[in-house]
Amino acid sequence: MRPGTFSKLAILGTLLLVLAVVPLVLPSPFHLRVATLVWINATAALGLALLIGLAGQVSLGHAGFMGIGAYATALGPKHLGLDPLSSMALGIFAAALLALLVGRPILRLKGHYLAVATLGLGILVHLVIVSEVPVTGGPDGIQLPHVELLGRRVTGPELWYWITGTGVVLAAWLALNLEDSSTGRALRALHDSEIAASVVGVDVARHKLVVFVIAAVYAALAGGLFALFNRFVTPDVAGFLRSIELVTMVVIGGMGSILGAVVGAALLTVLPQALTVFHEYEHAVLGLLIVLFMVFLRQGIVPGLAGRVVRRRSA
Amino acid sequence: MSLLEARGLSIAFGGVRALEQVGFTVDRGEVLAIIGPNGAGKTTLFNVVTGLYRAHGGEVRLDGRDVTGLPPHALAARGLARTFQNLEIFFRMSALENVMVGRHLKERRRLGAELLGLPSVLRENRESRARSRDLLAFVGLEERADEPATGLPYGALKRLEIARALACEPRILMLDEPAAGCNPVETEEIDRLIAAIARQGVAVVLVEHDMRLVMRISDRVLVLDQGRRLAEGTPSQVRSDPRVIDAYLGRHGVAAAHAA
Ligand SMILES: Nc1ncnc2c1ncn2[C@@H]1O[C@H](COP(=O)(O)OP(=O)(O)OP(=O)(O)O)[C@@H](O)[C@H]1O
Ligand SMILES: [Mg+2]
Questions:
Q1: Which residue of B has its CA nearest to A175?
Q2: Where along chain B do its domains lie?
Q3: What would the pLDDT profile of B52-88 be if each residue is shown by its tens digit?
Q4: Where are the alpha helices (DSSP H) in chain A?
Q5: Cβ–ligand 1 contact at B13 (below 6 Å)
Q6: A314 class by beta-carbon count within 10 Å (0-12 exposed, 13-18 middle, 19+ buried)
Q7: How far is it, in rounded angstroms, from Cα B179 to Cα B172?
């Protein structure tokens, strides 16, 4: 096991515990809706944590993949006559395909080309959504029908809380499994030394591509879930600010830490809601808090705190 | 037909001709040493042969088959492993995990099974861990297996790289100055390791400045100077070659070489 991390079971256990306790402590529909947003953002952040934390590759346009997932889910019923769930599956597939097409030529190159390319990709996706008004509804956004499963409407804050909560636990479980596998070790290895990884047989370009596609799938899934839950999407889901928020979730929670991605997502989803008391200074306070976290817990919240606990115990 | 054969390799960096028409062959169980003054092109030769640099001329053959220009991971799959003069360690991983990465090609790596954490993957993890522990024991690092690689001293990291390369179960092992920065006791340890590796049938190509080590352990010695082949032969032929003494060994080196 890696030093400074918890075991697979401990992480999943913690997540399940939080998942079970939140509705008991905060049963109001408003709180459940915020918690649902946390789970959705955490799902996207988990994929990005694999890309950034494990493999050391940065995507600055990850909200673009979220947008593809969200808008596919919204547009499928409207334009293709598909049900929302199949539309979401299609959106996830489209995001994976796009990641493959963009990542393939880019990830052969050494350096930060992926960050630049994804930045452009994210802006492009956002632009298309905003400007193709007849198809996407443009800046005003688009409404979704209810999801129906076995003839019944999937609705209500509590139900969506459990759906997205189960989603994030599954996403974390898959991510933890990947970490503890040959591919996971290869990804961590190429993060440290691409040269050394390649001479022991790791196909560096291929592995980067695999983790990039996985991260895109996570984001598109999160986007699709958001559209289904919220039943209304605007181009903001794919915006540049959202991409930066996603990266911030990963960095603030602790790069390379699965639990950290969830904690980071929770913080960046809940804080803006809590900070509305500051009115127009809301963003300034949020920025200040992020800076303070980075100054005092440089490795991120989860690894940083874990490190302190370990140090105190051994002291 | 030799196991590994390099022929007429040339490469230049700007105006510097780092290699000019250099070649060598090495076979199972054999130890070939490559020596020469600083900047002679030894590391560059390693980088070309292992696919990190692309030669401007010449070819590399493995089992008689042309493998020139193949990427490093494809060469690793054909049995070529190496260590680095300036350490290339996975510093965020434990010593054990560093070696486990060396098992990459021996693991099946089916993404679906890995994501689901299927029993076959867990079994493979256990097997890799056990094999890697054995290798750490072989290089004398079993006690430090679970320490982060960052904390290990230089000499230990040199041996960690050897263990990682061995985890590939290579047919050819290329060691770039494995004894650099090691004290005499550690050097003797490395000497024993290399002999044991060669005895298992691995072809060893060794770059080393420690003349005692080179003379004691090599079957043949290739001497490079300014990117060219200066001499080649058995250790005793090379150490009495006046051109080699002039260009590299000097009087001091000759004494060390004869002391071996
Ligand atoms: N990537 C590179 N870019 C530019 N020049 C290089 C590069 N690699 C090697 N060289 C040059 O090629 C020549 C040979 O260098 P090389 O590292 O192969 O020598 P060496 O025999 O390994 O020396 P040492 O004993 O010091 O390790 C030197 O002049 C070096 O500066
Ligand atoms: Mg060198």
A1: B115
A2: 1-79+170-260, 94-169
A3: 999 999 999 999 999 999 999 999 999 999 999 999 9
A4: 8-25, 29-49, 62-75, 84-106, 113-131, 133-136, 157-179, 182-192, 194-199, 204-230, 240-253, 258-274, 282-296, 301-314
A5: yes
A6: exposed
A7: 19
Residue from B128, B144, B126 nearest B136 by CA: B144
Q: Is the confidence at residue A32, as pLDDT, over 60?
A: yes
Span from the CA of A197 to the centroid of ligand 1 (angstroms): 22
- End-to-end C-alpha distance for chain B, whole angstroms: 32
Amino acid A39 reads W
Residue B47 Cβ inside 6 Å of ligand 1? The answer reads no
For residue B53, the ligand 1 atom closest to its alpha carbon is 1
User: Tens digit of pLDDT for each residue in A143-164?
Assistant: 888 887 777 777 788 899 999 9
Within B7-118, residue ranges assigned H as helices are 42-49, 72-77, 95-102, 111-116
B125/A195 CB distance under 8 A: no
How far CA A37 is from CA of A30, A222, B38, in Å, comes to 11, 10, 60
Cβ atoms of B255 and B239 closer than 8 Å:
no
Counting runs of H as helices and runs of E as strands, what totals does chain B give?
11, 10
* pTM reported for the whole predicted model: 0.92
pLDDT at A310: 66
Mean of the per-residue pLDDT values for chain B?
A: 92
**Distance (Å) from the alpha carbon of A240 to chain B's nearest alpha carbon:** 30
Nearest CA in chain B to A187: B101
The answer to whether residue B33 scores a pLDDT higher than 90 is yes
ipTM tops the 0.90 cut: yes
Nearest CA in chain B to A196: B88
Q: What percent of chain A has pLDDT over 70?
A: 96
Q: How many cross-chain Cβ pairs, A to B, lie less than 8 Å apart?
A: 109
Q: What is the DSSP letter of A53?
A: I
CA of B171 to the centre of ligand 2 (A): 22
Domain B1-79+170-260, CATH number (from 3.20.20.190, 3.40.50.300, 1.10.10.10, 3.30.710.10) = 3.40.50.300
CA A85/CA A91 separation, integer angstroms:
10
Q: What confidence tens digit (pLDDT) does each residue in B197-214 have?
A: 999 999 999 999 888 889
CB contact under 8 A, B71 and A198: yes
Q: Does B97 touch chain A (CB under 8 A)?
A: yes
